[in-house]
Amino acid sequence: MKEVGLFIIKCIAFVTIFWSLWLFAFRPMSNWAQSTSSNCASNQEQNDSNALMKKYWEQAARADQLQAAYEQQNKQAAAALMKQDELLSRWEKVIGKWEKSTPGK
To answer: N or C end of the chain, less CB within 10 A?
Structure first.
């Protein structure tokens, strides 16, 4: 009986020591390590986010430049088309006069 009582006391002591170490030593250390790694991860995520935003704004600026170049080319093409229409109407007048002036067959 004495051995059983001693065994139960040892079990209770072991469980008490285990849980006290777990709750007061290991768990706070693991939480601290986890928070440190999450801080590093959040810093990394912040840096990645900043890099993505920088890349986005660079692409937006490039898109604005391309849009401005497109609009300039569009204006030049419209002006060239108007000039071609003007020349075509002049040639139509010249050809019309020439057809009227030549004797018909």
So the answer is: C
